């Protein structure tokens, strides 16, 4: 397999810093030549150029340059391209040979999880000082997309780790918690995000799991449902209320280790799709954790969960774009070789119109996802865009993967081919991290605010 991502990134950054310093004189020369040209133009017009005017001209040009050449959201940085390519290579080499077997068994191979860590794909936004790749949110989404092209079940494991848990520890962790947990998240420990309960799904903050203070410790009792990655996880971020009378202001996030005797991993769900991704119930029975296991502050859990899910759903959008593209690539490769009436089925105009439209839909979803990711990364408002991105991408994933089965004909309906797996996997996109109705509510709320203001 290729060299691990952190190694590649370090080498590329070193190379760039060398070439940047050797390029500096060229930049200065270009600016000087622009200043010279301005002087020549002014002299020709019979005006003298003061140093101040010349400096302001340079400043303006710099400003114009950044305004005029603002890159498209699909333009990637060198680091992002490198990450995307190494995630794609990983998916081809490690996941493709195992995808059908893992789906059939409903379990993820241990070596797949180990390889995700080895390749630096589990701590993409973990700062380098804690052993991570030190990249941004868009980069994490790109990696999720590439992995989802081959296996959306593996993609959700790394998506939750990167876009929910790493973000949670990066943003809300104390320096000691970052040192203790981010290093593990980047190196070898899967973490689960535990919010949903049997009675608290879309209305997640109706949760009833309770945490009671006992000296310096907290004791957690209750249960969670639908918790992804709980078979593989070594850590669980658990949302519980410290005071039900306070409503959402009582909700607090606790870090619970798998070895805690008060935590039991319950029933594993037998699912329609993303079968290799584990989804289990959790039972907390006198689960005692120390005071330093509160992430953020007591009572901050609601705010944290809302904010994490708002950005996490961009990652699910990326998963769905990858799924749609993966099923499309899979079907097209078949269609160009499958002959009927003496010609490749991809040559029939009836088919061309369908796959041209599907390609356009995938690109539309991708642009929504990348745009939301870039907005989030640059600190601009992104909540509506994130909801739109997830909603659109999950709808596109369902419609494209459904059409791909049609395009393959009979073989698309069999379990020997991946097309039916993509279709089954696509169904989850409209459910987790906020159902489609919840995304529509978010979008409608922002529209109402704009028109009522
Ligand atoms: C495979 C899988 C993995 C998951 N992983 C995790 C995880 O790791 N961590 C975690 O905490 N949770 C996880 N979940 C839970 C997931 O987030 C919830 O299933 C989801 O939020 C929906 O909740 P629910 O299933 O209770 O559906 P409900 O909330 O009961 O919704 C049922 C239907 O009612 C609609 N509905 C509900 N409220 C409204 C409303 N106000 N307006 C209009 N329509 C509405 C919904 O859109 C839906 O169609 C996972 C779920 C699945 C299936």
From TrEMBL:
Top-tier EC class: oxidoreductase
Principal subcellular localisation of the protein: mitochondrion
Alphabetized UniProt keyword annotations: Acetylation, FAD, Fatty acid metabolism, Flavoprotein, Lipid metabolism, Mitochondrion, Oxidoreductase, Phosphoprotein, Transit peptide
CDD domains for the chain: SCAD_SBCAD
GO biological process, one term: fatty acid metabolic process
Ranges where the Acyl-CoA dehydrogenase/oxidase N-terminal domain occurs: 77-187
GO cellular component, one term: mitochondrial matrix
Cofactor list: FAD
Pfam families (UniProt xref): Acyl-CoA_dh_1, Acyl-CoA_dh_M, Acyl-CoA_dh_N
Localization in the cell: Mitochondrion matrix
Domain Acyl-CoA dehydrogenase/oxidase C-terminal: 301-447
Domain Acyl-CoA oxidase/dehydrogenase middle intervals: 192-287
Coiled coil: none
Assembly: Homotetramer.
The protein's name: Short/branched chain specific acyl-CoA dehydrogenase, mitochondrial
């Amino acid at each position: 397999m290729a060299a691990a991502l952190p190694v590649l990134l370090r080498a590329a950054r070193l190379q760039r810093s060398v070439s940047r310093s050797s390029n500096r004189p060229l930049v200065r020369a270009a600016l000087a030549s622009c200043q010279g040209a301005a002087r020549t133009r002014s002299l020709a017009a019979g005006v003298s150029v003061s140093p101040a005017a010349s400096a302001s001209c340079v400043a303006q040009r710099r400003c114009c340059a950044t305004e005029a050449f603002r890159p498209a959201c699909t333009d990637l940085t060198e680091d992002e391209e490198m990450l995307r390519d190494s995630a794609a290579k990983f998916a081809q080499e490690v996941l493709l040979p195992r995808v059908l077997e893992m789906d059939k068994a409903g379990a993820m191979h241990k070596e797949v999880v180990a390889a995700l860590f080895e390749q630096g794909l589990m701590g993409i936004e973990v700062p380098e000082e804690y052993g991570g790749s030190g990249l941004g949110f868009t980069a994490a989404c790109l990696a999720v997309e590439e992995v989802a092209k081959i296996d959306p079940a593996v993609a959700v494991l790394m998506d939750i780790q990167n876009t929910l848990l790493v973000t949670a520890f990066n943003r809300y962790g104390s320096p000691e918690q970052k040192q203790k947990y981010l290093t593990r998240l980047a190196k070898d420990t899967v973490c689960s995000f535990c919010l949903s309960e049997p009675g608290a799904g879309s209305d997640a903050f109706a949760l009833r799991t309770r945490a009671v203070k006992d000296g310096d410790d907290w004791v957690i009792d209750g249960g969670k449902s639908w918790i992804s990655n709980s078979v593989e996880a070594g850590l669980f971020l658990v949302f519980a209320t410290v005071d039900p009378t306070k409503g959402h202001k009582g909700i607090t996030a606790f870090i619970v280790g798998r070895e805690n005797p008060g935590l039991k991993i319950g029933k594993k769900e037998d699912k329609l799709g993303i079968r290799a991704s584990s989804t289990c119930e959790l039972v907390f029975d006198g689960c005692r954790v120390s005071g330093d296991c509160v992430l953020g502050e007591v009572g901050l859990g609601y705010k944290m969960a809302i904010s994490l899910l708002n950005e996490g759903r961009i990652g699910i959008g990326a998963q769905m774009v990858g799924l749609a593209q993966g099923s499309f690539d899979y079907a097209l490769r078949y269609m160009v070789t499958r002959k009927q009436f003496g010609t490749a089925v991809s040559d029939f105009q009836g088919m061309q119109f369908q796959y041209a439209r599907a390609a356009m839909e995938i690109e539309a979803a991708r642009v929504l996802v990348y745009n939301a990711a870039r907005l989030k990364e640059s600190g601009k408002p992104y909540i509506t865009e994130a909801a739109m991105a997830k909603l659109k991408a999950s709808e596109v994933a369902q419609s494209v993967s459904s059409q791909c089965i049609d395009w393959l004909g009979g073989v698309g309906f069999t379990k020997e081919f991946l097309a039916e797996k993509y279709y089954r996997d696509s169904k989850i996109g409209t459910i987790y991290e906020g159902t489609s109705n919840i995304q529509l509510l978010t979008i409608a709320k922002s529209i109402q605010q704009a028109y009522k203001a």
